[in-house]
């Protein structure tokens, strides 16, 4: 067996010892407080981002580009892995988690501007992001380098994914939808690894959001108010 897998199994021994009793309350069912839709980038430690050590607290979805959309025979729709906890476990909070320097956003930006070609599986994922990002690419200010353009599009992508959830008839009307960006590249000026709120139920204006949510006003920041 590959050494990496052996090391993962050994690391799991410590996890099993620490968490054994924490599964008692969720043996038969789950009622997570929130569903999070994170990018599957290896630098985004999805549960650790929120210091989650409680089985059953978060229903965590991951894919490249933190997409809430999947393609079906009837067209693009909200992904089943996002809908499941909203439909079946009483969850009423959805959090879309983008991150600085997102590779999926970078690749989609390149595909839209330079015609980047990827293997079919990756191309399918980028095709799901492309229609949502294309208007944002057209709106970018002149003179941005690629890193700055990508980080603005990260916010734009989060906004668009939030919008998909808010507009979907499949998502319960009383679901709160929040968009955030996880920053491990010192882009937002806070601590490395902080999550910054950029969108709450479709509202993007920083001043309005800070007035409405004073308890977390210092965590509400945007790079791009378009």
UniProtKB/TrEMBL annotation:
Enzyme kind, highest EC tier: lyase
Pfam families assigned: Pro_CA (PF00484)
Cofactor note: Binds 1 zinc ion per subunit.
Keyword Heme: no
GO MF, any single term: metal ion binding
Enzyme Commission code: 4.2.1.1
Entries under InterPro entries matching the protein: Carbonic_anhydrase (IPR001765), Carbonic_anhydrase_sf (IPR036874)
Domain of life where this protein originates: Archaea
Keyword annotations from UniProtKB, A to Z: Lyase, Metal-binding, Zinc
Binding site for Zn(2+): 39, 99, 102
Catalytic activity: hydrogencarbonate + H(+) = CO2 + H2O
Cofactor: Zn(2+)
Family named by the database record: Belongs to the beta-class carbonic anhydrase family.
Protein name, as recorded: carbonic anhydrase
Species classification: Archaea, Methanobacteriati, Methanobacteriota, Stenosarchaea group, Halobacteria
């Amino acid at each position: 067996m590959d050494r990496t897998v052996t090391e993962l199994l050994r690391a799991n021994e410590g996890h099993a010892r620490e968490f054994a009793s924490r599964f008692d309350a969720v043996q038969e069912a789950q009622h997570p407080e929130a569903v999070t839709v994170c990018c599957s980038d290896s630098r985004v430690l999805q549960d650790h981002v929120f210091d989650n050590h409680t089985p059953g607290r978060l229903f965590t979805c991951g894919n490249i580009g933190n997409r809430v959309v999947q393609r079906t025979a009837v067209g693009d729709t909200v992904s089943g892995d996002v809908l499941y906890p909203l439909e079946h476990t009483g969850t009423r909070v959805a959090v879309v988690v983008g991150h600085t320097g997102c590779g999926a956003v970078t690749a989609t930006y390149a595909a839209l501007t330079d015609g980047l070609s990827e293997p079919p599986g990756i191309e399918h994922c980028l095709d799901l992001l492309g229609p949502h990002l294309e208007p944002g690419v057209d709106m970018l200010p002149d003179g941005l380098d690629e890193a700055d353009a990508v980080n603005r599009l990260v916010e734009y992508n989060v906004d668009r994914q939030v919008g998909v959830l808010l507009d979907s008839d499949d998502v319960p009307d009383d679901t709160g939808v929040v968009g955030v960006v996880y920053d491990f590249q010192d882009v937002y000026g806070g601590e490395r690894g902080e999550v910054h709120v950029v969108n709450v139920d479709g509202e993007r204006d920083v001043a309005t959001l800070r007035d409405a949510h004073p308890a977390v006003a210092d965590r509400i920041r945007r790079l791009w108010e378009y």
